[in-house]
């Protein structure tokens, strides 16, 4: 119980919210890192996945890349990047690692979504004289949207988790509150930081789940 | 004064044979800790997940809450999960094991439940007709038929646990993660790369091993495909 009240006291102390190491700054860092990297990952992964899905090529790669992503430890990649020249460039390792781990779920889900579009529908669209790009934009993408958004949600949750681990390798974000707590041997601060990260992750998941639930309804109308 | 040694350790190269030979003990200890932590976590998770999935299958109302709780657990980032367990377990390997169990639970419960649900009703009725009681039905018909789906979950859970165990370095019980953490602080390239590669090797080996086990214990899936 002591830890709980300690963590609560730590969270409600205004001094812990201000400054470069304060909660507010770390929260903004975490949010910006996650959002920027999510947009970047989508820009990288989605066009590739949609075109591959449309053409029906490279399926083995698109599907297996997720399994490879799971086997490679995030922490190891972060540290490896930190020791390469990328490490000299501030948040470089964090950004590269974030994008690397967000791309596989985006790629796999979007690809599978595109391939699962009913072949009869595709054939009907072709019969109506749709060209390849038209078919992609007006038929396949709208029908694959639920799977694509599912990939975006998984990627977003993965990004929040990776950004947290980045703190172990010197990156910014909410994880820094936890690592600072460990360095100070302050269990209340560690727990307070962990609660912040957990709430942040659950909020992100909730936001994307809402988006997912609302989007297909709009498409099918 | 003697000249400093000019080997790959002194030059801090990424790939270094001398590192492997001179630090063999440290590496083996780290691998052993890594295996111990992951194995224990996956075992405990299986022992918890199977009854949970069976209960969720028996009582439909329990499925929603069980899946919701495990999903929430899965969403919490690993560093935060280990930190939240700190007041309970202190700085111990039990903390890392407990954290990994919570992650594996999600994947296992979901897959075992999906496997149980996929057992055809006709199969169940046939077994009942042959005089199978509920326990015998579960143990000799339903659970075996749920094996392919359960094993798929087990493989994902094991691979994830191997990779997530490295984060345990924050409390000093991360197996190979400890070497990566120490290597980062001392800028020791060979150590970081060797430990990272070993981690991936363990994950892939575990995955292949489980794939082999699955092949051995589900002979009927092979017969059906032929």
TrEMBL record, chain A:
InterPro entries noted in UniProt: ABC_transp_perm/SBD, MetI-like, MetI-like_sf
Positions of the ABC transmembrane type-1 domain: 27-208
Compartments, record wording: Cell membrane; Membrane
Top-rank lineage group of the source organism: Bacteria
Keywords: Membrane, Transmembrane, Transmembrane helix, Transport
Membrane topology term: Multi-pass membrane protein
Keyword Flavoprotein applies: no
Entries under SUPFAM superfamilies matching the protein: MetI-like
GO cellular component terms, semicolon-separated: plasma membrane
Family matches, as Pfam families: BPD_transp_1
Secretion signal, residue range per the UniProt entry: none
Membrane-crossing residue ranges in chain numbering: 31-53, 60-83, 95-114, 154-178, 190-208
GO terms of biological process kind: glycine betaine transport; transmembrane transport
Family: Belongs to the binding-protein-dependent transport system permease family.
Listed name of the protein: ABC transporter permease
Automatic annotation (TrEMBL), chain B:
Membrane among keywords: yes
Keyword Transmembrane recorded: yes
Domain of life: Bacteria
Gene3D superfamilies named in the record: MetI-like (1.10.3720.10)
Domain ABC transmembrane type-1 stretches: 31-210
PANTHER family: GLYCINE BETAINE/L-PROLINE TRANSPORT SYSTEM PERMEASE PROTEIN PROW, OSMOPROTECTANT IMPORT PERMEASE PROTEIN OSMW
Record-given protein name: ABC transporter permease
Source species of the chain: Streptomyces fructofermentans
């Amino acid at each position: 119980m002591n830890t709980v009240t300690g963590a609560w006291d730590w969270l409600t102390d205004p001094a812990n919210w201000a400054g470069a190491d304060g909660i507010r700054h770390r929260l903004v860092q975490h949010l910006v890192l996650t959002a920027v990297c999510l947009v970047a990952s989508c820009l990288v992964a989605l066009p590739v996945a949609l075109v591959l899905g449309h053409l029906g090529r490279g399926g083995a790669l698109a599907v297996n890349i997720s399994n490879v992503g799971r086997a490679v430890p995030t922490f190891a990649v972060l540290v490896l990047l930190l020791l390469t020249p990328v490490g000299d460039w501030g948040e470089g390792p964090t950004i590269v690692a974030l994008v690397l781990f967000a791309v596989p779920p985006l790629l796999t889900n979007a690809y599978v979504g595109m391939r699962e579009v009913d072949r009869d529908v595709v054939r009907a669209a072709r019969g109506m004289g749709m060209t390849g790009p038209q078919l992609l934009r007006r038929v396949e993408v709208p029908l694959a949207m639920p799977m694509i958004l599912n990939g975006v949600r998984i990627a977003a949750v993965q990004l929040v988790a990776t950004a947290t681990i980045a703190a172990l390798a010197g990156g910014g974000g909410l994880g820094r509150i936890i690592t600072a707590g460990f360095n100070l041997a302050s269990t209340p601060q560690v727990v307070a930081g962990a609660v912040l990260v957990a709430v942040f992750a659950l909020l992100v998941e909730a936001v994307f789940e809402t988006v997912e639930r609302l989007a297909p309804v709009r498409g099918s109308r | 004064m003697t000249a400093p040694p000019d080997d790959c350790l002194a030059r801090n190269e990424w790939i270094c044979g001398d590192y492997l030979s001179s630090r063999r003990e440290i590496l083996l200890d780290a691998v052993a800790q890594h295996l111990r932590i992951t194995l224990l976590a996956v075992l405990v998770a299986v022992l918890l997940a199977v009854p949970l999935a069976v209960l969720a299958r028996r009582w439909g109302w329990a499925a929603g809450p069980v899946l919701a709780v495990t999903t929430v657990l899965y969403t919490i980032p690993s560093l935060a999960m280990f930190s939240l367990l700190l007041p309970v377990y202190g700085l111990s390997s039990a903390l890392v094991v407990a954290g990994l169990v919570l992650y594996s639970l999600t994947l296992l419960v979901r897959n075992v439940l999906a496997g149980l649900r996929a057992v055809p009703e006709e199969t169940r009725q046939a077994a009942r007709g042959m005089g199978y009681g509920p326990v015998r039905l579960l143990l000799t018909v339903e659970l075996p038929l749920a094996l392919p789906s359960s094993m798929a979950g087990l493989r994902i859970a094991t691979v994830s646990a191997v990779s997530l165990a490295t984060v345990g370095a924050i409390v000093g019980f991360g197996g190979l993660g400890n070497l990566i953490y120490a290597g980062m602080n001392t800028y020791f390239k060979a150590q970081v790369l060797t430990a990272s590669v070993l981690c991936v090797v363990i994950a892939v080996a575990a995955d292949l091993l489980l794939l082999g086990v699955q092949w051995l214990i589900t002979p009927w899936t092979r017969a059906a495909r032929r």
